[in-house]
What we know:
Helices cover about 45% and strands about 20% of the residues. It is α/β, with parallel strands linked by helices. It has one domain (about 10-150): YqgF/RNase H-like domain (Nucleotidyltransferase, domain 5, 2-Layer Sandwich), CATH 3.30.420.140. A 6-stranded mixed β-sheet has the order 3-2-1-4-5-6, with helices on both faces. A hairpin with a 3-residue loop joins strand 1 (about 10-15) and strand 2 (about 15-25). The model has no long low-confidence stretch (mean pLDDT about 85). Its EC number is 3.1.-.-. It is found in: Cytoplasm.
Amino acid sequence: MSFRRGRRLGLDIGSVRIGVAACDPDGILATPLSVIRRSDEPAALRQLREIVGEYEPIELLIGDPKSLDGAARAAAVSALEFARRISLATATAIRLVDERFTTVEAHHALAAAGKNSRQRREIVDAQAAVIILQNALEFEHNTGAPAGRAMPDEESDL
């Protein structure tokens, strides 16, 4: 199996914000796109639908929020339920990708770039989405297999 050509979007779903990143059709470079506030879910889903319509990704790579021991916690269940709503709203395939440490990694990268904590807070989710997407792209380039796991069909499989 080889690398599948096509744009992808990476999403970091937090309880307050959703970070969004995109890559080029060859899957070389992930770049931050935006941060969407999650407080108004219908508006957030509309914004995501617009972004998906503009970029026409072959799939969405969404951070799979598990704890360090690999177990899903309450926040993970909430994020995955929202990912399911995104799937329905955008009619786009979703793969869940391990996101442990991505927010910490994003904070470190932004601090190294000279961003203070206030500046980081506003863009860290988009940077975390870049890391999720870039890691998934590198995995697929290196192995020829898609990263992560397909979105489960049943809520009991979350």
